[in-house]
Specification:
It is built from 11 helices and 13 strands. With 339 residues, it is α/β, with parallel strands linked by helices. It folds into 2 domains: 172 residues, 3-Layer(aba) Sandwich (Peroxisomal Thiolase, Chain A, domain 1), CATH 3.40.47; 151 residues, Thiolase/Chalcone synthase (Peroxisomal Thiolase, Chain A, domain 1, 3-Layer(aba) Sandwich). β12 and β13 form a beta hairpin. The longest helix has 23 residues. The chain is globular, with a radius of gyration of 19 Å. It starts with 10 loop residues before the first strand and ends with a strand.
């Protein structure tokens, strides 16, 4: 199909997934040697026991992770790169301001000529990209679209006691999904939501210049280009918006919590996930938590969870899957699918 043709598909399906994880593992025990912290302190407050960190000397960067994840997802979907019409990469950590991660990753898998753009919405980026890709396929202009989530937050961490409040949280990863036009009308996005509140931007940001930090009243003493996070404010935001987002999405779809087979949530903090589980009475098997192994991987977080469920055979045709993200911006969004 030519991307300029307009044939509206009956449905949109998730045809393949893939991931890319750095080999290097940074455990809580490793962090104890770098800063004043402990495995018990980190685990109790976040649920995190380990995270993956890139080794730049080995050529690992955001584009490399995105490319590996995309190649794996294409193989899983049984597609060649040349069959892609569009590549969307959700990332807040591109290797350079330009070129975009998406364009280079597309070229490396043989999708030269396909459309490509990066989307920056921090930890909500993959969910926003998923909704955007669906709309483009449903409009009839695109048939095969790759959506990637890839971030390397270790570039913006200070692994010392001064930076411990954020350094213990984040890991690096890439994950991708292939969306494909389908003749089956039951495979589709059912409901979605995307929101932002820039009034909360000062709670989670990475300043480039001193004036940026001063504008937000920074008193951390951290150098520029290091992540600042006001933990209590971000926690309150997530605990408040997360259940509200679930309820709103269920209402839009006229569904109840028990109707959903899988809640695929951004992995920011185990306590936040547990609060949502308790609020809606969600069984453990319906809300996967893997933050203990990978930490907060930002845009890669949501597709990483879905890939795990899919490769374990837990994603079945006809199931209802709700993807949920929330993060810096502040941003929050959902994407509810029948797969």
């Amino acid at each position: 199909m030519n991307a300029t043709d307009t044939i509206r598909p009956a449905g949109v399906e998730i045809a393949g997934t893939g991931t890319a994880l750095p080999d290097r593992e940074l455990t809580n025990a490793d962090l104890e040697k770098l800063m004043d912290t402990s495995d018990e302190w980190i685990t109790q407050r976040t649920g995190i026991r380990a995270r993956r960190i890139v080794t730049p000397e080995n050529g690992e960067n955001t584009t490399a992770l995105a490319t590996r994840a995309l190649a794996a997802a294409l193989q899983d979907a049984g597609l060649e790169g040349s069959e892609l019409d569009l590549v969307v990469c959700a990332t807040m950590t591109p290797d350079m301001p330009t070129p975009g991660v998406s364009a280079v990753a597309a070229h490396r898998v043989g999708a030269t000529g396909a459309g490509a753009f990066d989307l920056s919405a921090a930890c909500s980026g993959f969910v926003f990209s998923l909704n955007t890709a669906h709309a483009l396929i449903a409009g009839g202009r695109y048939r095969n679209v790759a959506v990637i989530g890839a971030d390397i937050l270790s570039r913006f961490m200070e692994y010392t006691t001064r930076g411990r409040s954020t350094a213990v949280l984040f890991g690096d990863a890439g994950a991708a999904m292939i969306l494909r036009a389908s003749d089956d009308p039951h495979k589709n996005l059912i409901a979605q939501a995307m929101h932002a509140d820039g009034g909360g931007a000062q709670h989670l940001y990475i300043p480039t210049f001193e004036r940026d930090a001063q504008a937000y009243g920074d008193d951390t003493g951290l150098p520029m280009s290091q992540l600042r996070m006001h933990g209590p404010a971000v926690f309150r935001f997530a605990v408040g918006k997360f259940p509200q987002l679930i309820a709103d999405t269920l209402e839009r779809a006229d569904l109840a919590p028990e109707d959903i087979d899988h809640f695929v949530c951004h992995q920011s903090n185990q306590r936040i996930l547990e609060s949502a589980r308790e609020r809606f009475g969600i069984p453990h098997e319906k809300l996967r938590v893997n933050i203990n192994k990978y930490g907060n991987t930002v845009a890669a977080s949501v597709p990483l969870v879905f890939h795990e469920l899919r490769t374990e055979g837990r994603i079945k045709p006809g199931q209802l899957v709700m993807f949920l993200g929330f993060g810096a911006g502040l941003t929050w969004g959902s994407s509810l699918w029948r797969v």
